[in-house]
Amino acid sequence: MDTNTKSIGELALEVPHAIAVLEKWRIDYCCHGQRSVAEACKDAGVTAEELLREIGTTPVTDDGRDWSSESLIALQDYIIDTHHVFTRQAMETITVLADKVAMRHGPSHPEVNRVHEIVTALVNDLGPHMMKEEMVLFPYVAALERGEQPANCFGTVRNPVRMMMIEHDAVGGLLRDLREATNDYRLPDDACLSFRALYERLAELEQDLHKHIHLENNVHFPRAVELEDHV
Ligand SMILES: [Fe+2]
Ligand SMILES: [Fe+2]
User: Fold this and answer.
1) In this predicted structure, what is the pLDDT of residue 62?
2) Most buried of 109, 150, 154, 198, CB within 10 angstroms?
3) How many Å lie between the centroid of ligand 1 and the Cα of residue 189?
4) Same structural domain for residues 92 and 189?
5) What's the pLDDT score for residue 65?
6) 215 CA distance to ligand 1 centroid (A)?
7) Which pLDDT does position 203 carry in this prediction?
8) Same domain, yes or no, for 184 and 98?
9) C-alpha 217 to ligand 2 mean position (Å)
């Protein structure tokens, strides 16, 4: 593998168990998936050789499906049934926990007030974002794949794709803000159960969003553009 030409998004796509190792090194393979493996490793402070060695020995943790060869309809169903369902449930729990923890611990741990603010922004972004995918982009792509000529109000699929990618970048930025505000989800000694649960649920949501955005940015969107170009 030429680590100067292979992108980190391609690596995550082609080697499903790469994702666990990329998460460990905090290498962004979704929003910044276009960087070369060499460049991403340099930024993360790991050599490409070391990263690839680790990937080779890590057990498979993903669902193991090769999304580059399945239909886009199957991929969309998978994204909705797993990632969108998970995100909606996680957002509900996290909203309750963030309210509670900010109210109880805000005075002694001001960082939870900042967490509350970022969580509110994240929920306000993600809800409408997923709705647009489910109501506009995915049905259009499904119709194209079925060989229909669907009407649309956006010209080319490149426009909603560009919009979705801008929104993904914003979500990526909020996830980074959360890491900064929580000092990488480090709990204070006096953290109660709700505090602990809030940080755990946020860290889980972050991991899931990385996989979710990776599937959209690096697999779904390029294939949707290609599909539209060839109908
Ligand atoms: Fe999505
Ligand atoms: Fe998305």
Assistant:
1) 52
2) 198
3) 36
4) yes
5) 80
6) 8
7) 95
8) yes
9) 8
Cα R_g (the chain), whole angstroms: 19
Does residue 51 share a domain with residue 22?
A: yes
Token look-up 């796509």 returns: 13
Whether residue 112 sits in one domain with residue 30 = no
Q: For residue 185, tell me if it sits in a domain.
A: yes
CA of 109 to the centre of ligand 2 (A): 32
The Cβ of residue 158 has, within 10 Å, a number of other Cβ atoms equal to 14
Measured in Å, residue 83 CA sits from the centre of ligand 2 at: 10
| Token representation of residue 34 | 């276009």
Give per-10-residue mean pLDDT for the chain (231 aa).
89 77 88 92 93 69 73 97 95 93 95 98 98 98 95 95 98 98 95 91 95 95 95 79
Same domain for 113 and 198: yes
The Å distance, Cα 164 to ligand 2 centre, comes to: 6
Q: Is residue 67 part of a domain?
A: no
Residue 103 C-alpha to ligand 2 middle, in angstroms? Answer: 31
CA atoms within 13 A on the CB side of 204: 15
Cα 153 to middle of ligand 1, angstroms: 20
CA 16 / ligand 2 centre spacing (Å): 20
Ligand 2 centroid – CA 79 distance (Å)? 9
- The domain total for the chain is 2
Same domain, 175 and 212: yes
Model pLDDT, residue 67: 85
Whether 18 contacts 12, CB under 8 Å? yes
Look at residue 57 in the predicted model and tell me its pLDDT: 52
Judge if 114 and 18 occupy the same domain. no
Per the structure, the complete domain to which residue 26 belongs is given by: 8-57
